[in-house]
């Protein structure tokens, strides 16, 4: 099992557009990507401009296929353009 935590820092005034693009990405991923166990977008309760994607994949291969999918490759540049600074992406494997 592979887990991904992707934190995004959305520009002031861009949240609605970011969430609209993000919703489409989440829906397409959950619908189309084999090996996707869970894929969702979450908003920080203290700062609504911090939006995190939490992902769970059956394997590294499933994650790599997602990273090469058309819906991911289309959405990511748009999402990044709506952020005011680089975010972070961390990948984890379950130990126990």
Describe the structure in your own words.
The chain is 40% helix and 38% strand. The chain is α+β, with helices and mostly antiparallel strands and 96 residues long. Strands 2-3-1-4 form a 4-stranded antiparallel beta sheet. A hairpin with a 6-residue loop joins strand 2 and strand 3 (50-57). Helix 1 (15-32) runs antiparallel to helix 3 (70-81).
**Do you know the CATH topology?**
Alpha-Beta Plaits
- What overall form do the CA principal axes indicate? globular
Report the order of strands and helices: EHEEHHE
Kindly provide the radius of gyration, computed on alpha-carbon positions and rounded to a whole number of angstroms. Answer: 13 Å
Count of DSSP-assigned helices: 3
Count of structural domains: 1
* Low-pLDDT stretches: none
Question: Span from first to last CA?
Answer: 11 Å
Specify the helix fraction band: 25-40%
CATH class: Alpha Beta
